[in-house]
């Protein structure tokens, strides 16, 4: 693929920010009046935050003190006591903050990512004690299920930039601070033990952790060690449509047609009747199915921190943070594949959604799989703070972080399909009966030749495809930061620089690259095929009832699913091998070099190595003065960011496509020789920031903030090659391309807020914000030929749906955050409530068929309420979190639409959680937690609300445990 660098466009607010930069320059030259002590408090690690006062009210007051005294817009969550964070997941705690909402993992229900003011994970930078954390996912975001919260000291969310910390986030910068031995001298210990159970899984699993901290050598040295083992088991039920593809139907396909011949063809095709020409826009389901997923999530978190104060002026901190998460999921289900050209008796609703149809000869697959992924992350760093003079402090920090996905190269996905087709294919369809929030689609009939009683008849089951994958990623970050702070009377000046090098490597080995996935495709003799073999009854472990499958949803499913092990099925096939001409059921000619073992091969198109080097320098000035007798706090800063990217991949082009005699839906692509491709690019940006706060009264504060921030592209978007998969499906030829010349998103941000601190531990606030964002990265799609290869199913040049990313338009996001925290005197009762309302000038337009994958994603109104009681050693908390429908992304699991990248929307959801804590003694407390007590589900849909994509029922979770601290 040829790429062209896009010109980086500045947002419309650049004139105002240029004025900000000029004002900052004048301030540096002006007489100095003082330092905003709150800025230092907001930027401080957990070690500088008093954690003596315990309990919910103590934590809320500390958070409020930092928010009140900070120059910028900062929200904070502090531990209620050592080893006692409000939630077991970092993201679950963050969603209590104004403007912050979470993205859940559908199959586990766990909070996996966050959005801040509508900007999702990749727009938010996560730091550990001020250092970037590596993540092997390839994105900028961190999967918060991998970050243990048990011994977190503090979370600080910077919604306006602190230039000495970072400016690489349009959404927010999240700084996670861990406790350190000098936080409190002496010896401290904390232990936690708990058991949790998810109601569907029905198995109690443990969490066990401990923390030890001590100082010695006259309190000039200290060491802190903690470790936590956590396990979560979840059983989730799912109904899915893998993609709603847009295309054109012919009139002869529609319900009521009397046509005896129907050969749907594009305009311009010769020898076709008028009603055979595809002219009617519509969306159809590419694949429909249901499955059950049992997930075992095990995580180990460990940390060691050493501090040494050789003199009153110097403090050295060395720490190592380690985590290892293993997520293993067992999957059983069914799936049925559809092709638009084979559909008949089609009913379209007013939006063009196919709400009913029939497809003759449809095969049925019973699917099984095991996904196993290990994510290991280790970050080690050293920091030295030196009070060089009474006024000057030097801060130097160096760190190394490496994250590895499947570091041992294990097979990460084992998949299998068995079933029936051919002579046993069924004339069936899928009926859509309502909105995706309460209805899932349902089969109109099922079973071999429509005989529902034989739906899972083992006598007719035969082998089909076999999928194995080994995904291996790594992300390695080296960073060094040097800063200096000058304080004199009421003036603070900060200067500094940072170097960061981030290297991301990716590769995938699978059975598509060598076509071994088709080795025994075809279903075998019962389906009238010579390829494929019968499935022994011994491989089937039982059935799974679908009764009451998804709580609160209407729709009918076949009565049971088959339960079998994908790897055992693969090993059975491997045991049959007697050579290419003697093995019964072998799909001869499918797989060059096949010797009976379902081995994996490297997919050259998946190989990427991205090196991103960035240099930054900053300066900020902070002072306090009076304006008309009112305290005025001023902070101005700027940051220069310079980035160079070197992107390497392996390129090749398709040379031919062949069909499969075993299964008419399968295609195999052959390729040219592979060759290495390397591209490089660079960019630089000047990022000013301004924070002003006027204390109208002691309790009423007015804020104004303006800044420019950037968010770099995902690392895995920067690959230099076009990737065409070796294994393809009829009517669904796809290719994906990235772009090494992508520029970062660039935003001008403005905040105006009013805060009222009307009594201790209570406040109300309103904050208006506007973000003008340019260089949006869009996943445009187009249908095109590649190397003029021929599609054997049409005899014409093959048309691929090619997805590629480019910098595109700009958009404005604006909104308002409302927050109210109140404690009812000494009663022990209180609440924390907030709501966020957002909108954009570039919402998604479902009627625009020329749209190439652009609208602002992640925007949703949200509201949170935490009501609590905290007195006399007893705590009780109710948390209610609501998020409205929002556009998650462009693209679906199967995305071959003729109308560009189809959207994925997440339906609105409301979840209620309960927690309690009882202090038995000063050292011992017991606690309990009930999550998702209303049994909320997670569901998504496509372009229109009745185009369900996924719905998961992930159940409730209950936890009980004990804490000990000394």
From TrEMBL:
NCBIfam families: TonB-Xanth-Caul. Residues 1-34 form the signal peptide. Residues 67-171 form the TonB-dependent receptor plug domain. It is found in: Cell outer membrane. Keywords: Cell outer membrane, Membrane, Receptor, Signal, TonB box, Transmembrane, Transmembrane beta strand, Transport. It is a multi-pass membrane protein. Residues 458-933 form the TonB-dependent receptor-like beta-barrel domain. It comes from the Bacteria. The keyword Signal applies. This is TonB-dependent receptor. A motif (TonB C-terminal box) lies at residues 949-966. The keyword Transmembrane applies. It holds the Pfam family Plug. Belongs to the TonB-dependent receptor family.
